[in-house]
Specification:
Elements (H helix, E strand, L loop, with lengths): L5 E5 L6 E5 L17 E3 H16 L6 E3 L4 H13 L19 E4 L8 H10 L2 E3 L11 E4 L1 H11 L1 H11 L6 H22 L11 H13 L10 H11 L2
Helix pairs in contact: 1-3, 4-5, 6-7, 6-8
């Protein structure tokens, strides 16, 4: 398809969300991104239109590898990360801006004008990079936050911001499951702190420190060391804690 962001019809299931057509990386490079992914809140879509225009004017091109994710898709990405099948961190459902129709992943290594120049254009139009590096994990991830959400993030943290963004568009899928998982992770963190003295933040987020603490526990008690708190690891925790 042409190197443009085309705004299509309104998404009837989500508030202030429109369907978009953008060049993707699947199939033949440059074919439209799959329809299930092609959704953005309207201001983000308008801003991305301007990004494409400037990138093309500068002699470059922009391919999108990811955009909107359903709760199920986000949970699968999180499970793949937890199991080690995926190296780049993916948070659980309701903790990702992809589910809020405010995130894109780009092909940062194929822009024609360099990632630095494309980043400058994205930033100019309100698309924020979440890491400072131009290569490596998550360099390709950009979010459309606006001042309102930047302020919210400063006050409440990233996960809370993503959760609230998702609720704002009426995307309630997965909320109950996400709360249950957060509760389970908080219990895991509290248990590891009691048994290992890990001093983890009890925030319900399975970050790298939590994974490393799980591995330390597994090594100490002769379990498979994979950093995943599955039924066997959980059973051992409960046995030691006598709960």
């Amino acid at each position: 398809m042409e190197m443009v962001c085309e705004i299509m019809e309104k998404d009837e299931a989500l508030k202030n969300v429109v369907k978009v057509r953008v060049p993707g990386i699947y199939g033949k490079k440059g074919d439209p991104l799959p329809k299930r992914m092609g959704k953005l809140v309207r201001p983000a879509a308008v801003a991305l239109q301007q990004v494409f225009k400037e990138v093309v004017k500068a002699g470059g091109h922009l391919y999108i590898s990811d955009m909107f994710r359903s709760a199920a898709q986000q949970q699968k990405a999180h499970a793949d990360w937890k199991s080690g099948r995926k190296t780049a961190y993916s948070p659980p459902s309701c903790n990702s801006v992809h589910e809020a129709a405010r995130a894109i992943d780009i092909d940062a290594y194929d822009t024609g004008i360099g990632h630095q120049r494309v980043r400058e254009i994205l930033n100019k139009h309100g698309w924020v990079n979440i890491v400072d590096t131009l290569t490596g994990a998550e360099c390709w991830h950009y979010e459309f936050r606006e001042k309102k959400w930047e302020s919210y993030k400063e006050q409440h943290g990233y996960a809370a911001m993503a959760h609230a963004m998702k609720e704002e568009i009426g995307n309630l899928a997965g909320l109950r499951q996400a709360e249950a998982e957060k509760k389970a992770v908080r219990w895991l963190q509290e248990s590891l702190n009691k048994i290992l003295g890990s001093r983890l933040s009890v925030d319900g987020i399975t970050g790298e420190k939590t994974r490393e603490a799980v591995k330390a526990f597994q090594r100490k008690y002769g379990l498979q060391v994979d950093g995943v708190a599955g039924p066997i690891t959980e059973g051992k925790l409960r046995e030691i804690l006598a709960v």
